[in-house]
Write a structure and sequence with these properties.
homodimer, alpha/beta, Rossmann fold, 2 domains, six-stranded parallel β-sheet, five-stranded parallel β-sheet, 11 strands, 27% helix, elongated
């Protein structure tokens, strides 16, 4: 890797894996004269990877990095992904390398927490049915639920899970936060099953790792109360989707909302679209107006640290698959 | 009025204006041996009113009291309505009488606050559109809004308005509370127009009185921002419904939700059902599971105070049309 240069000739190369359709990352203009910015897409990434000192994974939904990384030649010393999860890009070769991986920790926390609150309240107040009755011009008074005094189990104790817990608590909900290992304020994974049996709301905000893949399956849906509702804003493969469909159909649980899916976009023939009691949304929970600007600004802050040789924030534990710590 | 009796023969008569379909008020069994409980419906109320020492308006949506009260004969000394608003039952003769009127202040506060939060978050997160796209099996990612950092104007500074304000503040929203007269923490009505011009959310939680009838009209919708959303959980006639339809159609405001209407149930041919950007719900915002039990328990607490000659809580200022206070 070349040193960040104060000469007129940039010696640092930043490679940007762009989104399709292209939405160029904002603020990279600030690098003019300081770095050479190369763009790649899924087809050109493998060839350009050896040229890069740093890689910005702007197209965070792509798995191109995971496919291209094991190839020949030098590799960037730093990879930043404009997402909270790193499951799309991690591969054993990247994990074993010296390359530092950082993520967009922080940008999505509060928006996702609000989105979960919106889903919880909508389900408590039976809003989907109200909207359906409105389409039929049908006045049908019903009683709805209170959320204050109910219990939530939030699975995933990173910044997103903690923000979700904070917002639900602000609504008067008692929250149990579950992480990999117990620590003050966080239950360890060993307590999950017990907590599931008493939760009114189960929110999945876990990273996708080998340990968490498929963690919400028939057995765990079977532990939940018939009145419980399940929300997934983490990653699709955390849930065994067929098991969730069955759990809803058999009324093991009362409702669910998925913002993330095993296959995205969700195929038009997926049974999830029409599963009774299930709200389907298109992976939008964290994406509030201005989110791309925030992601761009966050990358530039990290870039300044990297260029100056300062320690980076948001460094992912590549074995665990997320940023450890509080 | 007879004194509350400790003899074996009840001398107090409680008249209950029942709901249609009949949902008997719970807990009145506790009065066995202590009071004679008579029931009335809209057709029998006028004839039975002179027999009653106290009247429980269990059918709080009925205007039978307002119609029957001006008639001949003695009148109950105490009227309790199982609702927050007293607009359905008040008439000049009742207002001028010595009869004490109490209401269900307190029962609906927190449920309604949650309901408003559900509507605010659903509109911020574009949930109605998401549910519509789900029906079409259409994956369409959109950016949504954050509620933290936005501004709400809550009109009505009684317990419901204050509970709404508290819940919205817990979501990070800056709230201006507007009452009839300014007091610490509450803006006076004279400031309403100015506050409307800068609110992202306008929530109507005002009592229906001669002063407030039709307060949300074309002029006031015209003051709001094009991005503003309006929510009414107070009483239908606080809003000039045709003006709201026009304001939404002309995009003077971005959206609205009505839980209360000039005519309830909302007629099937009302244009409100299909006004774009409008959520219609069937006057259910405060009615969470167990609400009838709570209303019954609250009445019994008041009854004990009344029977013992103790001062009553929740006494309505019959001129103003609500319980004054903080």
């Amino acid at each position: 890797m070349s040193e960040p240069s104060s000469s007129s000739r940039p010696e640092t190369t930043l490679l940007v894996l762009g989104a399709t359709p292209p939405t160029p990352p904002p603020r990279l203009g600030a690098l003019t004269g300081r770095a050479r910015v190369l763009h790649a897409d899924e087809t050109t990434l493998a060839a350009r990877l050896p040229l890069a000192d740093a890689l910005l994974v702007w197209d965070f939904a792509s798995d191109a990095v995971r496919r291209a990384w094991p190839g020949e030649g030098p590799r960037p010393r730093w990879v930043h992904t404009a997402s909270a999860g790193v499951d799309h890009l991690m591969c054993p070769e990247l994990a074993a390398s010296d390359t530092v991986v950082t993520n967009a920790r922080g940008v999505f926390d509060q928006p996702i927490a609000e989105y979960v609150a919106a889903l919880v309240l909508a389900m408590a107040k039976d809003l989907p049915r109200t909207l359906g009755l409105q389409r039929e011009r049908s006045w049908r008074h019903r009683e709805s639920g209170r959320v204050a005094g109910t219990r939530a189990c939030v699975v995933g104790s990173g910044p997103i899970g903690r923000a979700v817990a904070g917002t639900l608590k602000a609504l008067g909900i008692t929250v149990a936060l579950v992480g990999r290992a117990a620590r003050p304020g966080v239950h360890g994974a060993a307590e999950l099953d017990r907590l599931l049996t008493r939760a009114d709301w189960v929110v999945c905000a876990a990273p996708l790792t080998d340990e968490t893949r498929g963690m919400f399956d028939a057995r765990r849906f079977g532990l939940m109360q018939p009145s419980a509702r399940f929300v997934n804003i983490g990653r699709g493969p955390l849930v065994v989707e067929a098991d969730l469909v069955a759990a809803l159909s058999k009324r093991w649980i009362a409702g669910a909302a998925l913002d993330v899916f095993e296959h995205e976009p969700l195929p038009a023939d997926s049974p999830l679209w029409t599963t009774p009691g299930l709200i389907v949304s298109p992976h939008m929970s964290g994406d509030t107006v201005g989110w791309r600007d925030e992601l761009g600004a966050q990358f530039m802050e990290l870039y300044e640290d990297w260029a100056a040789g300062r320690p980076l924030r948001n460094v992912v534990d590549k074995e665990r698959g997320y940023v450890p710590g509080h």
